[in-house]
Description:
By secondary structure, this protein is α+β, with helices and mostly antiparallel strands. It has 5 helices and 10 strands, in the order ββααββββββαββαα. It has a single domain (2-166), classed as Jelly Rolls (Sandwich), CATH 2.60.120. Strands 3-10-5-8 form a 4-stranded antiparallel sheet. Strands 4-9-6-7 form a 4-stranded antiparallel sheet, covered by helices on one side. The protein has a two-stranded antiparallel sheet with strand order 1-2. The longest helix has 20 residues, at 147-166.
Amino acid sequence: MDSYPELGVQKADVDINNNPSLIASSAIDKLWKQVVGDSHLTSEFNQAWICREFKLGDELTQYNYKQHSAVNGGVVYLICRGKVRLLAFDRSLKKEVSIQLLNPNQIFGGDNAFCGDFQEYRAVASSRGIIAQISLQDLDSWLQRYPVLHDYFSEASKSRQKLIFSRR
């Protein structure tokens, strides 16, 4: 930051580390380049996502049969900053248990679109952070145009569901 004491003004530079939309945009670009393999259409893909901040303990979503049927749709989330814990009910222990701790650049959600019979879970913030989200309806056109995206989201959902199933 440059100071101009004679004017009583401070000049602020744009700081990507404190700008949620820039952090989300960077994470979405990284996802696109990692999965699709080029930078073509990254800005268009980026515009389909919504950015939001969360704090420790926030329930980000709860996936269950009633709210996320194939008819009702759903949402896919990309963690841009912070950590998110996935929790599912363990019948043998008769309580909710941690299934997975997700870090930046990992995704969750949308299991109803990628797994025929998905297990229920909750996503709870384990720290302060930022997520980007896209509805399955908005994501669908991208999945059709880029099958490698479909494969990526499908594989992530199936891996997550295996973790949940192993705890049931």
